[in-house]
Amino acid sequence: MKNYLMVFFILTWLLLGYQESCCQEAVNSQGRVSVATLFSQAKSYHGRTVTVQGEVIGDIFLRKTGFWVNLLDGDKAVGLWVPPELKKDINILGSYKRRGDIVRVRGIFYWQCPEHTGTPDIHVFSLEIILPGYEETMYLDSGELIPILLLAIIGASTITLFRLFRYVPSANPLPDKNNHARDSRWTR
Amino acid sequence: MIPNFSREDASVIAHSLGRMIIILGFLQTLPLTLAVFLREWPVLPDFLLSIVCCLILGGILLTIFPPVEEINWRQGMIVVALTWLVAMFLSAVPLYLSGHFNSFLDACFECMSAYATTGLVLVQDLDHLSLAHNFWRHLMCFVGGQGIILVAGIFLFRGSGAFRLYVGEARDARILPNIRTTAQFIWLVSGTYLVLGTLLLSGCLVLSGVKLPQAIFHGVCVFMAGWDTAGFAPKSLNILYYHNPLFELLTIIFSLLGAISFTIHYAVWTGHFHELKQNYELRVLFSSVILSYLITLAGFGTLSRQFPSPLAFYRISFYQLISGHTGVGFSNVPVSELANWSELSLLGVIFAMALGGCTNSTSGGIKALRAGLFFKTIRKEVRKLAYPEGTIVQERFHHQRELLVDDRQVRLALTITLCYIFLYLSGAILGTFLGNGFVPSLFESVSASANVGLSVGLTNPSMPTILKLWYILQMWCGRLEFIAIFMLGRFLVTLGRK
User: Fold this and answer.
1) Containing structural domain, residue B22
2) Which chain A positions have a beta carbon within 8 Å of B242's beta carbon?
3) Domain presence at residue B465
4) How high is the ipTM of this complex?
5) Looking at CA atoms only, how far is residue B181 from chain A in angstroms?
6) Best residue in B7, B133, B237 for a mutation probing chain A (most A CBs within 10 Å)
7) Is residue B137 part of a domain?
8) pLDDT of chain B along its 498 residues, tens only?
9) Residue of A41, A69, A112, A137 for testing the chain B interface, max B β-carbons within 10 Å
10) How many domains does chain B contain in total?
11) B213 touches chain A (CB under 8 A)
């Protein structure tokens, strides 16, 4: 029995050690971890203080004791639960017309948040803007419209030509012995 | 022997297809108008090019091929199957030009996923996609869920021709005697819920401090994806983006309403509330929700996983299950969460997805009525054995009115079910062959075929091309329920022979 317990403890220790090493590998030199890593190793990061960096996107959702904002890191996003006093630090949220602030946040990652009925989030306690967001310049490249206009003209001309020289089958399917031209006719 | 298709058939099909393509072009003026209104100028050429392509192609087909007097069953089926395929290609043009897709095939995948109300996505950097493109993704869900033919065809085709096209889209309920009035009723119900759903969902967001125009945009998009059981969302986090349990509850309610047959909606609409209690399909649907949830729960029991509270457990597990069963595919957890579920839990969701919602609804899958028919048939056979030889045994069920289980119905239901099972397995085998686990492959395959959209992570832009193509085929077949596709296959073979 003792041997079994010993083997069990060694295996558990090895397993935890492995998970720990995975976590350490995923944390970069600045102590930052990617959101993709957080989700792929959610169990090992659950309840731990992490530093993540990314663009704040979309909208701010206000609640009584704080607010929600989402952070995009690469192709993965995570919800941030932020205290109200940090709201003034966020200026621009990312969307089609805007690149949002790139922020570095420090907080506790929860795979299943006990405070917010089980969804994954980060409870932020510090937020720092690394790169301020900016408005994208939106303009219509008239050069792109020229091929479309040409295509429209060619298309309209083709349809018109088809309509002008349309082949209309005769109502009488039997050929007329005297006048073969009556069998079918061209509109022009 | 089934007669071969003639040149006249091809002419009728091409002319009808031309009409559909023109309507598709006009549909794209909606996101174009939105782009102008929101001053999203770089988006304009994307939609203009697509609209021009639709008008030219449709115009050429209408010009070359003579007008249609009446469309027959076979022609109607082929028109439907071809319309969905052509709509996929033409609708993919603006999406591809947005620069948010790796390839044109990815954009086509997204379009088929939207039209078939699946909800599997290959879009990249969705959070920076223009509102016009995003609206187009959701509009496709709405149009596909209602039925492209119902959107376009009913107003273009007269008489029984319209009904034949309507049936081609896997709908067979003549709620009202006339197909035109049936279509009008469906639009009335959908329109009413659209207004109600948008108000409630937007209101939820406005209370969270979101600006009104943004809230309305999200409300409209999420409603269209929920009601038509598509599962797209304007942001990459899907429903998790909103961090709002009330919002999630509303999406569940609207997706359940979407998964209910329009015949039941009609009964409730006309004050026949007893239909809710008596309808056999509805009973089967709720029984299967309970059964599949029990399987999922049993799966959670095999995991040593602890949820912070019972409410958290139900919020996560029940939401995914209802999402799978109704075929909506919304998710309030990241994709990696489902990958952490036990195989038994995944099998519970697979069972729910495979079965799907009600017939004549916007959801996919085998459908509750067909499953109910099998149950009744088994009961009938057992009773036959128990009674003395020669006794006539009949089984009844209530679906609008009292109906008898007859062999023809069962045979048809069995054929469609077998086709679905084959489709589910084919995608699972292909996924496994490409190096994925069998259960995740089956999950993704059923999700695509039953037009659900939940994913364990197999569907992504870097997945093999063959799998993308196969999922497109699965979504197409699953939405149209095979018959129209089989007819198209026969038509193409006949053309090849000539």
Assistant:
1) 1-172
2) 61
3) no
4) 0.85
5) 35
6) B237
7) yes
8) 556 677 778 888 898 899 889 999 999 999 999 999 999 999 999 999 999 999 999 999 988 887 766 777 788 888 888 988 999 999 999 999 999 999 999 999 999 999 999 999 999 999 999 999 999 999 999 888 887 666 655 555 555 556 666 666 656 665 666 667 777 788 888 889 999 999 999 999 999 999 999 999 999 999 999 988 888 999 999 999 999 999 999 999 999 998 888 888 888 888 888 888 888 989 999 999 999 999 988 888 766 666 788 888 888 889 999 999 998 889 988 887 888 888 898 999 999 999 988 888 888 889 898 899 888 899 888 988 888 887 888 888 888 788 888 888 888 889 999 999 999 999 999 999 999 999 999 999 999 999 999 999 899 999 999 999 999 999 999 988 888 888 888 888 877 666
9) A112
10) 1
11) no
Q: State the DSSP string of chain A.
A: -HHHHHHHHHHHHHHHHHHHHHHHHHS-TTS---HHHHHHTHHHHTTEEEEEEEEEEEEEEE-SS-EEEEEEETTEEEEEEE-GGGGGG----BSSSEEPPEEEEEEEEESS-TTTTT--EEEEEEEEEEE--EEPP----HHHHHHHHHHHHHHHHHHHHHHHT-EEE-S--SPPSS-GGGGEEE--
A28-135 CATH fold: OB fold (Dihydrolipoamide Acetyltransferase, E2P) (2.40.50)
